[in-house]
Design a protein that fits this description.
This protein is mainly beta. It is built from no helices and ten strands. The chain has a single domain, classed as OB fold (Dihydrolipoamide Acetyltransferase, E2P), CATH 2.40.50.100. The strands form three sheets. Strands 3-10-8-5 form a four-stranded antiparallel sheet, with no helix packed on it. A four-stranded antiparallel sheet has the order 7-6-4-9, with no helix packed on it.
Length: 114
């Protein structure tokens, strides 16, 4: 085990790092990426995109549902943190391009609100 000193915002912390063999790590099975949403014609709604890469843990809305700006649409896990993806605009959910468990990329369309 190696000990390092790390300075964060002017405060010094001691960090111990354990050497791990190749066989000791955890590996998760890859999740198949969801299909990309079909392009939306102008005037049909606002495409809301993923703010970061991650995995969709929960879908909080359904097609046809009325949403207001700020309503939670999805729970997106990124770097072991759960992030709320909220509606940028008010309107009716026209389409949902991802499902629970889907791996998404930064900028990928998640939902169309019109």
């Amino acid at each position: 085990m190696k000990v390092y000193k790390v300075k964060v915002n002017g405060k010094v912390y001691e960090v111990e790092l354990e050497s791990v063999s190749e066989k000791a790590g955890n590996i998760e099975a890859p999740v198949q990426a969801s299909p990309k949403a079909a392009p939306v014609a102008s005037g049909e709604g606002k495409e809301q995109k993923a703010p970061m890469a991650g995995t969709i843990l929960d879908v909080k809305v359904s097609v046809g549902q009325q949403v207001n700006a700020g309503d939670v649409l999805f729970i997106l896990e990124a770097m072991k943190l759960e992030n709320e993806v909220v509606a940028e605009v008010s309107g009716v959910v026209k389409s949902i391009a991802v499902q629970k468990g889907a791996a998404v990329q930064n900028g990928q369309v998640l939902v169309v609100i019109g």
